[in-house]
Amino acid sequence: MAGKGHKVDPAQLNEAAKVLQDLPKQACEGPIGAVEQINLSAASFGPAHGDCFNGYSASIQRLAKCARSYLAASDEFGRKLAASKDLYQSNEDSNAAEMRKH
């Protein structure tokens, strides 16, 4: 038991950590990579819209960086959550051992 009677299931923490690490990566990795590697030029926009290319291109690259940042944050949070599982399990084991003494 943790805190005021809240039960923490280390296995569920581990599953949540896996989802946080894997799901965003699976959903976003391909599209982000495609955006980062896109090979557009002002000519791709045509003569009437070529002057819009620089702003568009910079904005798309910023969006890709934001998405990469989200993936990194989600992965880091998942790793921290997975690490906390071990702390909860250790605490549960310690409490159980202490209770067996009495």
From TrEMBL:
InterPro entries (alphabetical): EspC
One GO-annotated biological process of the protein: protein secretion
Listed name of the protein: ESX-1 secretion-associated protein
The species this protein was found in: Amycolatopsis japonica
